[in-house]
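Deliverable D5.2: sample structural annotation.
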Amino acid sequence: MCPDNAKKVDYCCFYAIINIYSGGKLVATQLAKTSTTKVIYLNNRDILRQIHLSKNTYCKFLDPVNDHQYDIILPNVEKINQRTVAEARRNRADRIKKETGVVIDPKKILNTDLVFRVTCWDHIPMAPKKIPKSATTKKEKIQDIFDLELEDDPLTSIIPLLDEPEMSSKYVRLPFPPFYHYRIDDKKIPYIVGKSHWKGDLEHGEFCKDHGQMTRILASMFMKLCERYATRSNWRGYTYNEEMRGAALVQLSQIGLRFDESKSQNPFAYYTAAITNSFTHVLNSEKKNQNIRDDLLEIHGLNPSWTRQNSGKKNQNIDSEVIITYGDQPV
């Protein structure tokens, strides 16, 4: 039994009846109250927050306190119009309500307080074109020929040109798509308040993609995801379970920040799919190696693995025909 006011207690509180016996007889009864805290494994809101904080380490903002939090993600600057401004107001009001519990009318939010994240590649340099091995060998032969000529030969002026890297039509590979952060002034003209993959001043700084890092909390989330996924019934029985977890961690470290917040708000499903693909890849690779090992054992007259032997028995049972007889006559 619980007291009458037990309904007002939080759901995580429980009551237990403790009976005290002495000499086989009940001498006292006590009502003990126990409470347990709710354990939250992982949720999308916390993961999104850590992704946002990790991306901010690669960025430079005019005001790091107010300009880092965006209200809407747009594909280009031309999309900043009356409709997107109204949507950004609603998003900002919802975010403030979730964080602080304060209800704000979206119409009372000023346009100058809104921050727009715009995907932009203008400040990203082109990647140098990969030179094949055959071209490198040809270049060395040309240099050897030119070394035999005189220094005043006009052809020797071509040699420095060979050392200039040829740029490809692709951008430098980045940990996540680059972007600008914009605000609009009183005349509704957008101006830049932040850049991703940037170091130094916004006007006189330089491109940099290695100065940021993933937060420790996000890294621990990835480790917890791999550990919990590896304990599932369809994966925990494999002897190379640790290799699967290692491959999944490497995959998450590479694509962890590539999650696009404009397309989905469910990073948990995104990371779970990546872990599933990593586990499946390791499983297929191990099966391939096991088949090669079993073939070599059979070639040399040795017994293969139990998996190969049991698979042959299963095939025999499938191909066999069952005949039911009654006396000497088949039914």
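Annotation notes: DSSP finds eight helices and 13 strands in the chain. The first strand starts at residue 13 and ends at 22.
The annotation will be released with the project's public dataset once the embargo ends.
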